[in-house]
Design brief:
This protein is an alpha/beta fold and about 220 residues long. It is about 35% helix and about 20% strand. Helix 4 links the parallel strand 5 and strand 6. Bound molecules: NADP nicotinamide-adenine-dinucleotide phosphate.
Length: about 220
């Protein structure tokens, strides 16, 4: 496919799952924007690893000259250390990079957001996620896909005890859980991202619940 892609959040559960799923020649150019080397991608030299200091977002401009920008970047409030730092990672950085990408001609933005994202939510996490969604809609990408998954499943390097316990309880009972709240495996989201890259649908679209599990 003659599409050029850039990914921010390349080392994370979803970003890496997506990058690992790409075969040589599938896309014209793939750039993983990251703050550290990704050893597991060393066998995929066709994926350019572009290492940056995230305190200097402008340095990424050249790597944002892609048709499609995929954002799987994010942190937790615990890891971030403060609400201010969380806002920086989950709102300010993706928004600044999205604006830069649009200036450079990027037509499609795919965001992995979260269930419950709502700019007016009383829960801080959901509110920040929602604020990013609203701000992205205002940028005017010809194609904006927002994915709102529930709990993510997959092999995560970082230990997250809360998530682990949640998975233990939720996975066996998954069939009882309404689609909107069902945990979703990283491989399914990666497949959905791949589907959306080739989608010709224009405008802004939010994907949640069963739609996320349905891959064309
Ligand atoms: N976990 C869940 O169950 C869940 C559920 C719904 C939605 N989500 C959302 O879905 C998205 C993808 O989740 P995920 O689990 O794949 O994320 P993840 O594994 O936590 O990966 C996050 C990515 O963001 C990068 N990042 C974090 N802080 C950064 C910073 N200060 N500067 C630069 N990069 C930074 C990480 O880079 P480094 O590796 O360099 O730190 C990593 O590439 C996130 O926005 C998350 O909030 C998660």
């Amino acid at each position: 496919m003659s599409t050029t892609l850039s990914v921010i959040g390349s080392t994370g559960l979803i970003g890496l799952e997506f990058l690992n799923s790409i075969g040589e020649g599938e896309y014209q150019e793939v750039t993983a924007i990251t703050r550290r080397q990704i050893p597991s991608l060393s066998e995929k030299p066709f994926i350019k690893q572009s290492i940056h200091n995230f305190d200097d977002l402008e340095s990424m401009r050249n790597d944002l000259k892609s048709e499609v920008l995929i954002c799987t970047l994010g942190t937790t409030i615990k890891t971030a250390g403060s609400q201010e730092r969380f806002i920086e990672v989950d709102l300010d950085i993706p928004l600044a990079l999205a604006k830069m990408a649009r200036e450079e001609g990027c037509n499609t933005f795919i965001l992995v957001s979260s269930i419950g994202a709502d700019a007016h939510a009383s829960i801080f996490y959901s509110r920040v996620k929602g604020q990013l969604e609203e701000a992205l809609k205002a940028i005017g990408f010809p194609r904006l896909h927002i994915l709102q998954p529930s709990m993510l499943l997959g092999d995560r390097q970082e230990s997250r005890p809360g998530e682990f316990i949640g998975k233990l309880i939720m996975q066996p009972l998954s069939f009882l859980i309404p689609w909107k709240y069902k945990p979703i495996h990283a491989s399914i989201l990666a497949a959905k991202i791949r589907e959306l890259i080739s989608s010709e649908e224009t405008g802004s679209r939010t994907w949640s619940g069963k739609e996320l599990f349905h891959i064309n």
